Amino acid sequence: MRTLIKDTIEKIGETVTLKGWVNTKRDHGKLTFIDLRDRTGVIQCVGFQKMSDLTPESSIEIIGVVKKRPEKMINPAIITGKVEIDVQEYVVLSKSETLPFDMGQQTLNLELPTLLDHRSLTLKHEKIQKIFKVQAALADEFRKSAEKLGCTEIFIPTIAAGATEGGAEVFQVDYFGHKAFMTQSPQLYKQIMVGVLERVYTIAKAYRAEPSVTTRHLTEATQMDIEIAFIDSFDELLNALEYVGTSMVSNVSKNYSQILEEFGVDQPLVPDQIPRLTLRQAQVIVTKRTGRDLSKENDLNPEDEREICLWGKEEHQSDFVTITHFPTKKRAFYTMPDPENPEYSLSYDLLFRGIEILSGSKRINDYQQLIQAMKNKKVNPENFGMYLMAFKYGMPPEGGFSFGLERLTMKLLELHNVREASLFPRDMERIDERLSQQSSEDNL
Amino acid sequence: MRTLIKDTIEKIGETVTLKGWVNTKRDHGKLTFIDLRDRTGVIQCVGFQKMSDLTPESSIEIIGVVKKRPEKMINPAIITGKVEIDVQEYVVLSKSETLPFDMGQQTLNLELPTLLDHRSLTLKHEKIQKIFKVQAALADEFRKSAEKLGCTEIFIPTIAAGATEGGAEVFQVDYFGHKAFMTQSPQLYKQIMVGVLERVYTIAKAYRAEPSVTTRHLTEATQMDIEIAFIDSFDELLNALEYVGTSMVSNVSKNYSQILEEFGVDQPLVPDQIPRLTLRQAQVIVTKRTGRDLSKENDLNPEDEREICLWGKEEHQSDFVTITHFPTKKRAFYTMPDPENPEYSLSYDLLFRGIEILSGSKRINDYQQLIQAMKNKKVNPENFGMYLMAFKYGMPPEGGFSFGLERLTMKLLELHNVREASLFPRDMERIDERLSQQSSEDNL
Q1: Span A432-442, mean pLDDT?
Q2: How far is B13 from chain A (nearest CA, A)?
Q3: So what's the pLDDT on residue B52?
Q4: Are the Cβ atoms of B396 and A59 closer than 8 angstroms?
């Protein structure tokens, strides 16, 4: 019967069977020290033998006795720091080849390309694993808050007949001889579905064939989407997105405070009321603080986002700032223009610590207005038959928003590149392994 | 302040604001009867006015007084059957066009192609909505049981450089001029990830370019996958899959018993021990019961699956039967052959009421053995660099399984076609709208 490493501290004096990976191994003359790692933690194992067949990352089974460590040998940094295992026997379950680099460092100091070239190995590093434990927790908190809002989970397709939101940045699929596309977002289907279930959520893939390599874009990303209907006001949407955004971030930060500490990240500042600014108000503030003239700009650039977040932190003790009313022409066709000034739209972004983590809007729910909006944006309504059908049959006032899971994970742990927050990141230069220029020409 | 329909029964005598869709409308001279539908139910509303602008499926707001119905007018079939709304005012939020067919029937009697041609409308039918409430509940129960097994949720890619499991039935993507493929399953990535996190689960898309139209295949399906490492025995895997399979089905059936009743489906039979048979044992039983000689067959065909499930029900009071030890040559390259008889493999299917709802196996975890197994199956190891890397660095003994969400939903509600259990089903003839033969030639 296997004992998990975290449970050894309750079993002092007992003989236990542990299973895990050799995290590190140190030979000290007659003694061998193994740090054994399983999904619950790491524990020091001491053997009076050479154990020469134990290579780092090999998976092994150890039978041994749990012993208290001498007082001065206690390691307060880990929960098993007060005990160690006196190894009686061990079995190698699967021997690891020699590692291409030392995995025993507290932080794996590798350049990003090397980290990704060896992804199946580097993911095994304890600190890298923690990124994905936080990611799983974010997704879980997202679902919990969506359920609290009364949303039903939906499972929607990613292969579509038309480019979801128009534009050229779509991946094309050969669909039995027909041209099809990978969806750029779950947007259109979640909108159809609020016409059915009123309130829906989905965690879905978004595919963007952006021919650029930046630190915050992936060609295949995970989106967490919510859409709600029968809304009374624009504020109802803002309340909902701030509720989901802040409770995700706060709960995960609280429940994984040790991981945040290890990554050198503070607990997030979440005031009772998140500061809300229109784009134009935000621009005036940035101009005041920096002298930069933004009056001709129709969006916030990354520098502006960082500045307005500094303002939010200084003036409102908030790591979040909500920005509303982006110019209608800068937003997708389904975005509702502000009836009081249609040049601007009932749209919003949620910024967190200098970066946009959410985007969304109130939607156009009138069929004729939607057709007109498509035409204005040079989107052909003929390619959106199933979507438009939903608006013919009583689509209520509605809106929604979308979080990027990888980007949120990146920002919460202050990683430098969104690829670090994706298990197997896709970009234009890589599908697991690097795509060579050569094969690009040969393959098609 | 909006009142949800289900909450009206607590508000007798009060004036409430309801929002929803006109489910049905009946004119009785001076009186108009509206059945109003929101996400929580349906309620009868009575107006002393014509309400001639209210068309079925329009979304509306009603202000009215909650009244007790006279004793003989009570409808015991619905929770709001004891009350009705005396309409004071109403507002049309979004007027529906004339429906192409009557949506007011208890069951929507349409041929499948019609049902799908009008999917954005037909999904709004109450009984069809319920299919997807059950589906959401199945996914939720899946996650709960996976968490109880100690699994971490993972988010893995669907664009791959090689065809996941070999074979020709893959969708090809143009990836910046490179040839790429949509994954046929999350299999390879979840295997890599048990080398990292030991126990993982994912709800992911599986793409199969099967050029055939059957009642149980989709080209884009939702898979619920679990993979666990450091297993002691084959039985440990069987215990895990039976736990997840039966608890999903039992919990959803119990929590949604009214929906099951409406679909005319019995509560599932789940004995303490699910009957387990090897393929050969199952074949002998089918032969005994039907006289059909299966000794040359290497799999169960749909007829056999139904027969062995009848046996399970009659002999073991079980709606589930676990079948193990399929021939090694019939299973994917990563399947572990049975060491005692390598012609057969440590593989399994879980049958539920006559159909396979789960498939899986113990995996080959030794690097050299895996390379050899690939070569035997004519799979080129060069296309699986990132996958194989995981096996170089200490992959423990492991195995896993996978449920098809749509197929399980179909079977639990005894639907006739898996397309009914997919919000927007994809098959070779349809991406929302039907694909014409014409465009097949024109488009590429």
Answers
A1: 65
A2: 24
A3: 83
A4: yes
Residues of chain B with pLDDT under 70: 164-168, 437-444
Which residue in chain A has the smallest CA separation from B437? A178
Beta-carbon separation of B394 and A59 below 8 A: yes
Q: Residues of B with CB below 8 A from A123's CB?
A: 192-193, 196
The backbone torsions φ and ψ at residue B339, rounded to the nearest 5 degrees and listed phi first, read -60, -30
CATH fold label, A5-94: OB fold (Dihydrolipoamide Acetyltransferase, E2P) (2.40.50)
Phi, psi angles (nearest 5°) of residue A235: -60, -30
Residues of chain A with C-beta less than 8 angstroms from the C-beta of B366: 94
The pLDDT value given to residue A164: 61
Q: Where in chain A is the domain with CATH 2.40.50.140?
A: 5-94
What pLDDT was estimated at residue A166?
Answer: 60
- Taking an 8 Å cut-off on Cβ atoms, the answer to whether A173 and B182 are in contact is yes
Tell me the whole-structure pTM to 2 decimals.
0.96
Task: Return d(Cα A18, Cα A1) in angstroms, integer.
Answer: 9
Q: Token pair for residue B359?
A: 């498939």
Q: Give the CATH architecture of domain A119-443.
A: 2-Layer Sandwich (3.30)
The pLDDT of residue A68 is: 95
The helix (H) or strand (E) run that includes residue B350 is strand B347-352
pLDDT at B243: 98
Nearest CA in chain B to A224: B155
Delimit the CATH 3.30.930.10 region(s) of chain A.
Answer: 119-443
Mutate to test the interface with A, among B149, B432, B438, B439 (most CBs of A within 10 A): B432
> Long-range pairs for B76-84 at CB < 8 Å and ≥24 separation?
B78/B41, B78/B42, B79/B6, B79/B9, B79/B41, B80/B5, B80/B6, B80/B8, B80/B9, B80/B41, B80/B42, B80/B43, B80/B44, B82/B9, B83/B8, B83/B9, B83/B12, B83/B43, B84/B43, B84/B44, B84/B45, B84/B46
